[in-house]
Design a protein that fits this description.
By secondary structure, the chain is an alpha/beta fold. 30% of the residues lie in helices and 16% in strands. It has 3 domains: 1-31; 33-174 and 205-256 and 283-402, Alkaline Phosphatase, subunit A; 419-503, 2-Layer Sandwich (Arylsulfatase, C-terminal domain), CATH 3.30.1120.10. Residues 1-29 and 499-504 have low confidence and may be disordered.
Length: 504
């Protein structure tokens, strides 16, 4: 009896201690800012007014003079925080970039080097870390890290997010509905879900529908814990279609093909020759602009609801995309290569009181940097296994960081897949691309923002390729990138560094 009594007392003390610890964790969490991560899909950075404002007119209006889409709500976020002008998809295809974004690891170390693979469950995600910090975590929209399921609502592999009812694994659906409280694709043909817009309206079109679900979650009055919510829109990814009135709102613009479309300048071999050459259609750009404006309007609606419940200014907001869309530049649509339109993404950070307003950060950022930077912004313990950089102190006060001498920062890109095609290093001006089937390419954003010319070995660029090449070599060692075992990549790296002996 005495043994049982002592055992019971130990259990009671343990329970009280656990409750106190839990209460302390909850109390600490309540002082933390919320986190809202807005992710678009296949989004050309030039469609945001805040980016166009920082570009020469010919770069800002790539599809013709005056052919622009207003994005006042995203522009407002940028003005109230920091806009990153050289942000890049770590691998410019959906799944590998998303894996890097949500883990802080390079794609080949996440189990998701290419599309439709399953995220390695042994790697802590940003959701896992914020769960431990007392956050309530939700993912609303396209996930694309759970394998081949399509759409697969509430995927089996969910990255540790607590609320996943409105998470779907993959697909670019245009209409969603609730059937007896259960989410479903609203457009079908022969009983199968389709990407058709159909009769989607402001309640059922995917962008609107997902925003409504996010508003319900974020503004839930009974919740006391801070939230980490990802809202992942499947647009403006193709098919380029959108609900009324956005479907014809930009039809009157005079769209013309980009300067690099059918330019006559020989393309790099890593682009893949003349295959997939699209016929330029202004109507296609009109629908793309419509998707972008629908997203902007819905982000404005979400922000207004957050303001009405008083949580806006205590929320770290990050807006970015998983990759760009060339939108006919260099005779291509979509993504998958290191050109700016494909690999460069919008990235905006806002948190009043911690991130100074009206900042422009011109050094490179990779989507692999998102998770460690969020952790840094929240003052939480860093993970020594992170491969991305914690840029929280830099983005909080760009001017102060710029006044402190430091090595020139870089970010690194690689092609999606398990077979090496190209790798790249990017600084604030140059981009070095090493590939399996071409000489090294060096782009100079200052002298040739259209990326038509190769500056490798040109007068005036001495030492640039060598510097970026050495950084690539160190990246490959630090992050165990198997692409550098490819003999052509290795030979190209030796070439730009100088000699194979220099590796010793």
């Amino acid at each position: 009896m005495q043994h049982n009594y002592l055992r019971a007392m130990i259990l009671i003390v343990f329970a009280i201690g656990s409750a106190v610890m839990s209460s302390e964790a909850d109390s600490a969490a309540k002082t933390q800012p919320n986190v809202l991560l807005l992710v678009t899909d296949e989004h050309n950075f030039r469609t945001l007014g805040c980016y166009r404002d920082l570009l020469p007119q010919e770069q800002a209006e790539m599809w013709g003079p005056g052919a622009v889409v207003p994005t006042p709500h995203l522009d407002s976020l940028a003005k109230q925080g920091v806009i990153c002008t050289r942000a890049y998809a770590t691998a410019p295809v959906c799944s590998p970039c998303r894996a890097a974004m949500i883990t802080g690891r390079y794609p080949h170390n996440t189990g998701v080097p290419t599309n439709n693979k399953v995220l390695d469950g042994k790697i802590p995600t940003l959701a896992d870390r914020l769960n431990d910090a007392g956050y309530r975590t939700a993912f609303i929209g396209k996930w694309h890290l759970g394998g081949s399921g399509k759409p697969e609502w509430a995927p089996k592999v969910d990255g540790g997010f607590q609320f996943t009812k409105f998470m779907f694994n993959r697909g670019h659906w245009k209409k969603f509905v609730l059937e007896n409280g259960t989410p479903a694709v609203g457009s079908t043909r022969n009983g199968e879900p389709t990407y058709d817009v159909g009769d989607a309206d402001e309640k059922t079109f995917a962008t609107d529908w997902l925003t409504d679900r996010a508003i319900d979650y974020i503004t839930d009055p009974v919740q006391t814990k801070p939230f980490f919510t990802v809202v992942s829109y499947p647009d403006p990814h193709g098919p380029n279609s959108v609900r009324a009135p956005y479907d014809h709102r930009f039809d009157d613009l005079r769209f013309i093909a980009p300067r690099t479309y059918e330019s006559g300048v020989p393309a790099p071999k890593w682009l893949g020759g003349g295959k997939n050459h699209p016929i330029f259609r202004g109507q296609d750009m009109s629908r793309y602009f419509g998707m972008v404006q629908c997203i902007d309007d819905n982000i404005g609606r979400l922000i207004e609801q957050m303001k009405s419940v008083g949580c806006l200014d205590n929320t770290l907001i990050i807006m970015t995309s998983d990759h760009g869309d060339l939108c006919y530049e260099h005779d291509r649509q979509n993504k998958g290569n290191p050109y700016e339109g494909s690999a460069r993404v919008p990235m905006i950070w806002r948190l009043p009181g911690q991130i100074a307003a009206e900042q422009v950060y011109t050094d490179p950022v990779g989507t692999v940097d998102v998770t460690p930077t969020v952790i840094g912004m929240l003052g939480l313990a860093a993970d020594p296994d992170d491969q991305g950089r914690d840029l929280s102190s830099v983005l909080s006060d760009v001017a102060s960081a710029a006044s402190t001498p430091q090595p020139k920062p870089l970010t690194f890109l690689r092609n999606s897949g398990t077979t090496a095609q190209w790798v790249a290093a990017v600084d604030d001006r140059y981009k070095l691309i090493l590939s399996v089937n071409d000489e090294p390419w060096l782009f100079d954003a200052q002298q040739d923002p259209d990326e038509l010319l190769n500056f490798y070995m040109r007068p005036g660029s001495q030492g640039v390729a060598e510097r970026l090449g050495r950084a690539l070599r160190q990246y490959s060692i630090d992050n165990h990138d198997p692409y550098f075992q490819n003999p052509n990549i290795a030979a190209s790296l030796d070439q730009v560094i100088g000699t194979a002996a220099d590796k010793q």
